[in-house]
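Reopening this ticket.

The earlier resolution said the output was attached, but the attachment link was broken on my side. Pasting everything inline this time so it's all in one place.
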Amino acid sequence: MRLVVQGSAISISHLTHIHRLCNTSVQFVQIAQHAYYLANQPPLPSVQQFCADQHIDCAYVDDKQHINNFGLCVMDMDSTLINIECIDEIADMMNLKPQVSAITESAMRGEIDFATSLKQRVALLKGLDESALQRVIDERLKLNPGALEWIAACKVNHIKTMVVSGGFTLFANHVQKLLGLDYAVANTFEVISGKLTGQILGDIVDADRKAQELVKLRDDLGLTPDQTIAIGDGANDLKMMSAAGVGVAYHAKPIVQQQTNYALNFVGLDGIANLLIT
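Inline output:
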């Protein structure tokens, strides 16, 4: 395995200390401005703890995992590709953000079923003017750091990209266009006479559906599970990440970090490329 450490906080003294903990003659190789790897390393809890204490992302990556071996990357949207939970910001237009955010957080921690939580949240939005959705895009939605760089790396390496979101199509389609993603799957609000009814049209994109979309597209592309990457931050991403060869928890809830291959807490999405490029 190779040890990959990265983060804007990294200094020469950090690298020296990590090298000492590893007790190796192998030298660090720089792979990006704030990213380095050390070849042929067994996982060491002392290294992992030091990096966490110093706000440095640390991962032990299987030597077989290189970016040019992958063919599909499936990603969550809210708080993963973008900086907000869209439904929370929509609720803010109705002065309901605290109530909706509390339900969102509980669902992302895995405390309540996602589909149930989504229905509860959407019901609170009944009567909202449809124009509020576009205001969220125009005024609040931004890509998370490194998103453009990560998708560019996917394109260079011929990796197909899909956003699959428990959020909504207006936002997912916008993000698809911003990043040039190949596919987008999300939920659809019911709108009558220009106002939200508080209902969702069709089947809800929940944890099971996210995993199903990954598997279906993977099979359509003729790929193996080992050729797929899934990225997310909430409990409803876990089944999708389990179905992938590599799961990456991006600034994620603890339950997600505990059950995925790699966790990034301090760097942007471009840090995924650093994990997979040597």
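Reporter confirms the inline version is readable. The chain has a mean pLDDT of 94. The two ends are 12 Å apart (CA to CA).
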